[in-house]
Amino acid sequence: MTKPPRQKSQPLLRETDLPVRSRLLKARDPARPQLPFDPMPDRIEPCLALLKAKPPSGPDWICEADANLYAFDLLYFDGHDLTKMELSGRRHLLEDLIGESEGAIRVSEVLEADGATVLAAACEHGLEGIIVKHRDSAYRWGRLGDWLKIKCIQSDSFVIVGYEPSSAARGGIGSLLLGAYQGNAFVYVGSVGTGFKEKDAMKLRRMLDTLKIKRAPVAVDKKGLVFVQPTLIAEIEYRAWTDDGKLRHSSYKGLREQQDNAAIYKLGE
């Protein structure tokens, strides 16, 4: 007697309109509270790291380290919106969900050390920098300071407000004068005179000469300068800031391809 053909499995179909729920990798901890169900959001705006020159210290902050594909947060799970839960709780659920995986997807590692120590180790290994997050923070979109980014070598965007001419320098540019936002106005944050390639410097000089203006857009106490409309945005690498608010050991890395005023460095009030 032949067996009747098996029907194809349809695991995602249900007789009711109830949502399909994911399967847990292991049993839930009964001591954990049961959360009410929340609708799955169409989109969650990303939480962004605020750039800082030095990492914070103290037990309220955690440092995370990069390799393979790392999952570093859990915002929605099993019908629950987790964005209002504190970071430490979200990470606890994420670690339970993924487990101690050695595969391609892993949970980002929390480094139990002071931020300055972690940053020094990252720089010694040639990494770009570290991310530091406040343990008790909910997930909030934008750069609000709950997450911080500290780079080994700082790199930011500054508006070009003028240049110092030079007959000996490439393209006739001795140095570029740089500005940053302070409130709604630009302030002078120093100059950059290294990093120029001859071809790029000549092209940049031609662009700047079409933007010349007579009145300085920022206060600069130096003679013989050429001022320009604050239109072009340069990417600058630098090591630190001086006590009077100027860039130290800066190097020109090129113009931003898109004119994005939101990317111009903002000084504290």
Automatic annotation (TrEMBL):
UniProt cross-references to Pfam families, sorted A to Z: DNA_ligase_A_C, DNA_ligase_A_M
Keyword Disulfide bond found: no
GO MF annotation: an example: ATP binding
Name of protein: DNA ligase (ATP)
EC numbers: 6.5.1.1
4Fe-4S listed as a keyword: no
UniProt keyword list: Ligase
Catalytic activity: ATP + (deoxyribonucleotide)n-3'-hydroxyl + 5'-phospho-(deoxyribonucleotide)m = (deoxyribonucleotide)n+m + AMP + diphosphate
Gene3D superfamilies for the chain: 3.30.1490.70, DNA ligase/mRNA capping enzyme, Nucleic acid-binding proteins
Annotated ATP-dependent DNA ligase family profile domain residues: 64-182
